Amino acid sequence: MDYEEMKGAYSALMTPYTKDNRIDVEMIGRLVEHQLANGLRGFFVGGSTGEGMLLSYAERTMLLETVIRVNRGRGKVIAHVGHVSTDESVRLARHAADAGADWVSSTAPVYFAQTFDGALYHYRRIAEASDLPFMVYAFFTTVDPVRDLRLFEIKNLRGMKYTNIDYYSVQQLQERLDKSALFLSGVDEMTVPALASGCFQGCIGMMCNMLPRQFTEICRLMLDENDPAAARPIQNEANAVIALKHGYGGLPCAKEMMRFIGLDCGPCRGPFPPLSEEQAAHLSRLFRAQGILKAV
Fold first, then answer.
1. Interval 49-98: pLDDT, tens
2. What whole-number distance in Å separates Cα of residue 182 and Cα of residue 61?
3. Are 149 and 173 in contact (CB under 8 A)?
4. Is residue 201 within 8 Å of 6, Cβ to Cβ?
5. For residue 200, which of 234, 165, 231 has the smallest C-alpha distance?
6. Are 122 and 93 in contact (CB under 8 A)?
7. What is the CB neighbour count within 10 angstroms for residue 231?
8. What is the pLDDT of residue 218?
9. CA distances from 246 to 83, 97, 145, 178, 284 (A)
């Protein structure tokens, strides 16, 4: 399989909501257009940033179908199908294939069977549900270079979204693989170090929603130009925004950033508590004083 066409920056696409807490179809179209116009390679749909675990089956399928429809084949669409139930993940994976997604991906089991054997069973069932290439979503989990070789024996398992920073273990796993695979980094603030490690063909991140141009340029400089000196100042600029996000509530703050730039995605679903008007106004003042986030 040729992974060259998958190289680049992907947004962990936010799920926008209307004022009555329904998925905002019109805003999905605006997000896709804005991010493609700023160079992103595609979209990771229904993942952590997309609040996928907080959506119903009907919402998850509608979200994916909407992204695929408005994307019109321009970017690559990776459908996250992780669920507490393996059967529901399989159902979502079959829908993703029928809807026209390019890849499927899943976290390891959550709540039940949080063991390697549980993950192996969970991933195998999902991967065998369709002919789409499957991507493990390693969400702040460890990579064991010897143990995890067994994952790549699974039919259609072709890659990993690695959201952690132990690049040595990833490199050691890749050394043991007897076939090529796609690895995408998932820690936004470490994109330059991740790409400098030589282990990754791109990144998937929350901050690509509000800083798509910066992460597109980081990937271009690191992957095409091999110029970390030019990429580092862009990473530093992104990290200044990320520091605000970390300091003021994570995803709720990130959604407030989207509202600030003119792409209002609404609040987060519960259990995230909504921001008060005072909190939102305070964040807006911080974003304006920092001067990095720009209105679209």
1. 999 999 999 999 999 999 999 999 999 999 999 999 999 999 999 999 99
2. 25
3. yes
4. yes
5. 165
6. no
7. 23
8. 98
9. 26, 35, 30, 39, 15
Both tokens assigned to 171 = 């490199």
| 3-state secondary structure at position 81 | coil
Rounded Cα–Cα distance for residues 181 and 58 (Å): 32
Look up the pTM and report it: 0.97
- Domain residue ranges in the chain: 4-231
pLDDT of residue 140: 86
Question: Quick check: is 161 catalytic?
Answer: yes
Q: Which two tokens stand for residue 107?
A: 């976290």
Mean pLDDT on 178-199 = 97
ω before 271 within 30° of 0 (cis)? yes
Locate 183 and state its tokens: 């690895």
155 pLDDT higher than 90: no
Assigned token pair, 296: 């679209």
Q: pLDDT-based confidence at 180, cuts 50/70/90?
A: very high
CATH number at 4-231:
3.20.20.70
Two tokens at 160? Answer: 């990993």
Q: Is 162 a catalytic residue?
A: no
SS3 42: strand
- 245 in Cβ contact with 288 (< 8 Å): no
Which residue is catalytic, options 137, 162, 167, 245?
Answer: 137
Does pLDDT of 131 surpass 90? Answer: yes
- From 161, 162, 167, 245, active-site residue: 161
| 208 to 105, 142, 221, 258, 282: CA distances (angstroms) | 19, 24, 16, 11, 23
Q: Exposed (0-12), middle (13-18) or buried (19+): which is 99, by Cβ within 10 Å?
A: middle
Please give the backbone phi and psi of residue 139, each rounded to the nearest 5 degrees, phi first.
Answer: -100, 95
Round to whole Å and give the CA distance between 248 and 207.
15
